[in-house]
Amino acid sequence: MSILLTENNFECRVSSVLNKNIQSYGKMYMFDNCSETCWNSDAGSPQWVLIKFEEECSLSSFEVEFQGGFAGKNCHIEAGNDKKELIIVESFSPEDKNKLQRFNLKNQVRAKVFKFVFNESTDFFGRIIIYNLSLYS
Questions:
Q1: Cβ burial 33-43 (10 Å sphere, 16+ → b, else e)
Q2: φ, ψ (nearest 5 deg) of residue 52
Q3: Of the candidates 21, 45, 77, 105, which lies 20 to 30 Å from 15 by C-alpha distance?
Q4: pLDDT tens across 57-78, in order?
Q5: Helix (H) / strand (E) containing 53
Q6: Has residue 2 got a pLDDT over 90?
Q7: Which of 133, 131, 134 has the alpha carbon at shortest distance from 36?
Q8: What is the pLDDT of residue 35?
Q9: Quick one: pLDDT band at residue 1, thresholds 50, 70, 90?
């Protein structure tokens, strides 16, 4: 099992950042291995995280750590080789807890683009807070 985000070049986009404050809550904090930093979305649903690799990769599982009270609900992953033509691959249901959660896909997916969509949030305002996001082949 390899860690896709450390072994491959990628770019990341997110739906929003709290008060547009990327210095404190930017997307890069999901990948810095620091328990003190996080991506914090602004209010509203849905929220999403899009990962685009230079080369096609196989995804078999992923881990995500939310802040309790700000976890995704009614979530799914989309995948494809063009961010305009993504298809829904699988739904997932995180717990509303402050712990690293692992999700194994039923079938491994090959693509360049993976989009994690959080259609709802456990937060009343629709905010999502992620401390860590890891993808595995």
A1: eeeebbbbbbe
A2: -120, 120
A3: 105
A4: 999 999 999 999 999 999 999 9
A5: strand 47-66
A6: no
A7: 131
A8: 92
A9: low
Determine the Cα–Cα distance for residues 63 and 52; give it in Å rounded to an integer. 17
Q: If you search the block for the tokens 């079938």, which residue do you land on?
A: 107
Half-sphere exposure of 38 (CA within 13 A, CB side): 19
Closest CA to 40 of 131, 133, 135, 122: 131
Q: What's the CATH code of the domain at 67?
A: 2.60.120.260
How many whole angstroms from its chain centre is CA 82? 17
Which residues constitute the domain of residue 69? 4-136
Average pLDDT, integer, range 69-98: 95
Q: At residue 98, what is the residue type?
A: N
Residue 124 tokens, joined: 């009343």
Asked whether 135 and 4 are in contact (CB, 8 A), the reply is: yes
Distance between CA atoms of 124 and 126, rounded to whole angstroms?
6
Alpha carbons 50 and 85: distance in angstroms, whole number? 13
